[in-house]
Amino acid sequence: MLEDDTKLTKRGDTHTYNIAIDGPAGAGKSTIAKKIAARLGFIYVDTGAMYRAMALYFLRNQIDPSDQAKIEEACKDVEITIAYKDGEQIVTLNGENVNGFLRTEEVGNMASTSSVYPFVRLKLVELQRALAKRENVVMDGREIGTYVLPEADLKIFLTASVQKRAGRRWAELKAKGIEEDISEIEKDIRERDHRDMTRTFAPLKQAEDAIYLDSSDLTIDEVIDKIMEYYNKIQNREVGKD
Ligand code: DC
Fold first, then answer.
1. pLDDT tens digit string along 59-81?
2. Fewer CB within 10 Å of terminal CB in the chain, N or C?
3. Which mutation among 30, 44, 112 tests ligand 1's pocket best, with the greatest number of atoms within 8 A of CB?
């Protein structure tokens, strides 16, 4: 928690401070959101992990993501919960901690495909809003500023060129000993961007009041510094009002 929580109070005592970070896959949202949350003593909410947990269920049960009726039916059997342990978000799928299974390309692609359905999204949005109401959060996703938390105090739209994002992903995989063809990664990213941006319900889009940040030529620390600058600016404005 911040030393002086009252500074954050904008809409009465029960108001929590919400930072929304949206953007395409591979822009660095989760790394940055996590660090900002740690710096401010906020909770980091990784909404992608929730869609990934749903996707894991569909994969494990061999449900074809183009079969809308089957996906809708399966949603009734899925319970996702979120808990925090030592600052880490733990996602449970029907009672099982599934954190270790979420970060594969297969799960990511299934999450992108299955999250186009409103009934998949609505299941998770409620959970996300409840968290933001209860806690000061840095929440990252695709539509946090436009749909999940339209009243967020600070909204960032974080992006980077497809080439840079593919390059980062390639380096990440190489560090894990996995050699991938960079053009395949690029193709995957383009497809994912297209799907996330063109879905009808709550697509990936910059909110009108979001700050646009291109991280292509910035280090992680430079991006964090910029976001902290915006955060401090808003804080000073709020304190100035008193
Ligand atoms: O951020 P990520 O790579 O973990 O997200 C995986 C997929 O989940 C993403 O391609 C689309 C979907 N997603 C979403 O639709 N809305 C969110 N707020 C977060 C993720």
1. 999 999 999 999 999 999 999 99
2. C
3. 112
The length of the chain, given as a count of residues: 242
Atom 13, ligand 1: residue with shortest CA distance:
48
Q: State the chain's maximal CA–CA distance in angstroms.
A: 57
Q: What angle do CA 158, 51, 200 make, to 5 degrees?
A: 70
The domain locations on the chain are 1-42+137-237, 46-135
Closest residue CA from atom 9 of ligand 1: 112
- Order of strands, sheet of 137-141, starting from the edge strand that comes earlier in the sequence: 43-46, 137-141, 18-22, 154-159, 211-214
> Which tokens sit at 220?
């992680």
Going from the C-alpha of 51 to that of each of 75, 103, 239, the distances in angstroms are 12, 11, 37
Write out pLDDT tens, residues 153-169: 999 999 999 999 999 99
Residues 147-178 as b/e (b if ≥16 CB within 10 A, e otherwise) read: bbbeebbbbbbbbbebebbbbbbbeeeeeeee
The preferred substitution site among 44, 51, 159 for testing ligand 1, maximizing ligand atoms within 8 Å of CB, is: 51
Torsion, Cα 105 129 58 32, to 10 degrees, reads: 10
In the CATH scheme, what is the code of domain 46-135? 3.40.50.300
Prediction pTM value: 0.90
The dotted CATH code for 1-42+137-237 is 3.40.50.300
